[in-house]
Amino acid sequence: MTTLRAVRWNEPAAFKRAMSRQGYRPPNGWYPLLTMLGMAGCLGAMALRGEPLAGSWAVSVALLVAVAVGAAYGSPHFALLGTHFAHLVPHPVALSEAGVNHTELRGSQVVLQFWPWAEISHCTLEHLTLSGETFSVLVLHLHNGETRPIALAKDASPDEIEAVVCANGKELHRRA
Fold first, then answer.
1. In CATH, which of 2.60.40, 3.40.50, 2.30.29, 2.40.50 is domain 7-23+85-174?
2. Does the pTM of the predicted model rise above 0.70?
3. Which of 59, 113, 135, 139 is the most buried (most CB within 10 A)?
């Protein structure tokens, strides 16, 4: 029995950035209110203590307001910075006898994903247009009805991908 060699490539960072722009959700509307309530709690604690935090009441209140507004309206956008630096972190993909391995950067987290062949019903190779750019993608169709698109690198061979997918008993459909 011959062992089939794993097919590996790095998913293009442009695809990850385009996907993150597609899934952007604005920050929770309650977040600023909760931050302002926290600020009011700090002011209340200072009043109970009887002295300001930063030397004078005016400076203390101004400092608390600035921190609260910055936290409420600025910090949710810091999480988006990870998508701007996604090109610095490789997103490796590997198709092997065991299944499909995929590593990606989501915000500030590195997410390791694995789908064994038993969870995959079939795969398709197709083109997906996001933010005006077209990508060649391998789409994993899972038995639970979910789909997982994974972009191909320019050097990824569709024929090698098909060989690994078919060798593991799955169909690969090619769409134009």
1. 2.30.29
2. no
3. 135
